[in-house]
Amino acid sequence: MPYSRGTSNNIIVGAAALFIADTTLTPGTLESFDASESFKDTLTDEADYTNIGYTMNGLELQFQPDFGEVQVDQILDVAKLYKQGMQVNLATAFAEATLENLLLALAFSDTQLTGNKAASTGRTLNLSAGELGECPVERGIVAVGPGTGDCDNSDSVERVYTAYRALSIENVTVSAKRDEASMFEVSFRLLPEDASGSYGKIVDRTWGQS
After folding, report:
1. Which of 8, 49, 147, 196 has the fewest CB atoms in 10 Å of its CB?
2. Which domains does the chain have, with CATH numbers?
3. Are strands 17-21 and 139-146 parallel, antiparallel or unpaired?
């Protein structure tokens, strides 16, 4: 095979659409792909998923392995590394500053959001401190963005990122500033699913092709 400098079709540029599930996900409960449509359209039709709308600076998946060291007398450096831990985080910023998105960013229960914005009493998010022993709210996350492949088919090529269990654990700031848009920067800690031990999966797919 002759030398090639690279393949520009494998360069990915563009943000992803972010959906948050009402509950955690498993390989068996994640919606199936429909060969005739984008996975964004599939999830939009499902009531159990919330499209958080506009985001800022896309999303970032960070894998942080933790390695232990074995030192021996005869070598000044370590002789062996062994994996002793793993942490995966997903970071993004919700650009639509709705109470619904704030609830998701804070990992609050759905019961803490009440009322109707159109009514005189308004829509209310109860900022409760919680109680000792309270179970944290975990939700599944699915992001659908551009994938690798032929540029001529770029509209039908996508990459799907799935996190089975996600929990918001970092500080969330709510602001109202004269020269900046209000948005919620959020970092989700991903946890492995019980049965498979998997954090989730990333799938490259092409839809609508005969």
Report:
1. 8
2. 8-115+136-206 (2.30.110)
3. antiparallel
Q: How would you label 29-60 residue by residue, b for 16+ Cβ within 10 Å and e otherwise? A: ebbeeeeeebbbebbeeeeebbebeebeeebe
Q: What are 64-77's pLDDT values in tens digits?
A: 999 999 999 999 99
Please give the C-alpha separations between residue 83 and each of 26, 67, 178, 196, in angstroms, as whole numbers.
25, 4, 48, 19
With beta carbons less than 8 A apart as the criterion, state whether 205 and 39 touch.
yes
Q: Using an 8 Å Cβ cutoff, are 188 and 141 in contact?
A: yes
Copy the structure tokens of residue 20.
């948050």
CA distance 206 to 54: 24
Q: How far is CA 153 from the centre of its chain?
A: 25
pTM of the model: 0.89
Q: Beta partners for 191?
A: 165
Can you tell me which residue has the tokens 């709510």? 174
